[in-house]
Amino acid sequence: MKKLFLILGIGLFSVTAINAQETEMQKIEPTPDNSWFKLGLTAGLPVGDAKDVASFNAGLDVRAQYMVTPNLALGIASGYNHYFAKDDFDDFGMIPLAAYLRYYFTPSGIFIGGDVGYGFLTNVDDNQGGLYFSPQIGYHNHDWNIYGYYQHSNTDNDFKLQSVGLGVTYNIRFK
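RESULT FIELD:
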């Protein structure tokens, strides 16, 4: 699985590098057309170790995005993911704090991307969190992003917090 993500990451950066070489690089100033906030919701199903303790997760997705080129976006991502526990466990949550990268193939259409950072756990004894990553693929237009995701956090005590799901965000543009 790690090799797959490495290959996807190298491929994404290679496409970006080739695109950057083909066009004249200019400094892009932040404007309402290239910088905005994204606010949305996620819903997913726990997998791996997480499916043993939780049955469902739902969350809030908050992002700030800057378009480096017309196709490549960099940003920061956070939010909150609430895991609804099974009978013998307590509900818990994760607050991701991550950098993200997205590649938009066209002004409206398919995109790929991912988050890398740290996932802080809430309401869990003896486990602070761990390395967090979340690859995504989705559809976007001027106002909305709809995407499928896989979230993975290698937390303390060898617990791997994983889920797959869907997310939707609305672009809040600067005026």
